[in-house]
Amino acid sequence: MKPEMLCQRSDLPLRMMITSAGRRVGLLNSFRNSAAELGLPLEILACDCNVAMSSACHEADLRFAVPPASDPSYVEALLDICRTHGVALLVPTIDPELQPLADADQRFAEIGTYVSVSAPALVAIARDKLETARFLAAVDVSAPRSATPQDILDEPEGWAWPLLAKPSHGSSGRAVQRVVDLDAVRHLPTDEDFVVQEFLEGREHTVNLYFDRCGHMRCAIPHERLQIRSGEVEKGITCHVPALEEIAEKLARALPSPRGALCFQAMVRADGSASVFEINARFGGGYPLAHRAGGHFTRWLLEEVSGRTASANNGWQEGVLMLRYDAAFFVTP
């Protein structure tokens, strides 16, 4: 997208849309707060396949019901909304929508909408856990030994049990399970593809990354996942981990055309070494912790699409502790 397409008149609000908004009120408010800091008038649109049950949609300025991300008409529905309402920035939030949106990036650019998504090749790597493991091995980043269930059944020698099985395209810890022997591998679900991996020991961490529109990494913030609920960090603390920061630099050089917010997850062993087991080509669930520590990805995205001077930097604060709690959004009849 040409830079001049991203600038709007200063007297008009910039319109952005958060897709698959669900309960991402925290992300929505991060954008609102960043816009206020910039003195930027902002209207936030949100869409979901179930608007009535989405707290983020109720919190947004405008809300739209759209088909599920897996529906062939999903991209057309988003294009129509962006065209009609002059959306300058579109921010996807869930894995299933990343590939269709990355593939349609140029179509959105033609109507003046910047989609904060990485190149299709990167999304394809991140969306398939077996491909992720192969990519990491190819760029000399430590990763768990991985294989399909059939590969293990055909050649079971050399595996140290128990192993970890997970859907190849899963997220949020869905259907992750320990398998203790070959019989357990044989009985894995067959309605979707699974990957089986070496079981990693250590302390689980996430590293939130921000890449500018030119694909340069501007920020990398590790945090330890102290407590997890439903696959998402509930308690976490930012920390400098040399092995993870080195991996971040290596990935920044190797990933094909990264853009916007990404994150990766890794286990850090007692000796300080680390192995990466997942890459997410989107805002991670623990982004609010990175934001609080100084990684203002939402501000930096707004700066890019509004033509403001970029302030992205890696000056984040160590030791910021996040303790999540449940909150409620009430809809009156």
Summarize the structure.
The protein is an alpha/beta fold and 333 residues long.
Q: How would you characterize this protein structure?
A:
This protein is α/β, with parallel strands linked by helices. The protein has 3 domains: 3-117, Rossmann fold; 145-198, ATP-grasp fold, A domain (Dna Ligase, domain 1, 2-Layer Sandwich); 201-323, D-amino Acid Aminotransferase, Chain A, domain 1 (2-Layer Sandwich), CATH 3.30.470.20. Helices cover 30% and strands 25% of the residues. The protein is built from 12 helices and 15 strands. It has helices at 25-38, 55-59, 74-85, 98-103, 105-110, 120-127, 129-138, 149-154, 182-186, 242-254, 287-292, 297-306, and strands spanning 14-18, 42-48, 62-65, 89-91, 114-115, 146-147, 163-167, 177-179, 194-198, 203-211, 217-229, 232-238, 260-268, 274-280, 321-323. The longest helix is centred in the N-terminal third of the chain and has 14 residues, at 25-38. The protein is globular, with a radius of gyration of 20 Å.
Question: Layout of SSEs?
Answer:
Elements lengths: L13 E5 L6 H14 L3 E7 L6 H5 L2 E4 L8 H12 L3 E3 L6 H6 L1 H6 L3 E2 L4 H8 L1 H10 L7 E2 L1 H6 L8 E5 L9 E3 L2 H5 L7 E5 L4 E9 L5 E13 L2 E7 L3 H13 L5 E9 L5 E7 L6 H6 L4 H10 L14 E3 L10
Parallel strand pairs: 1-2, 1-4, 2-3, 4-5
Antiparallel strand pairs: 6-9, 7-8, 7-9, 10-11, 10-13, 11-12, 12-15, 13-14
Helix pairs in contact: 1-12, 6-7
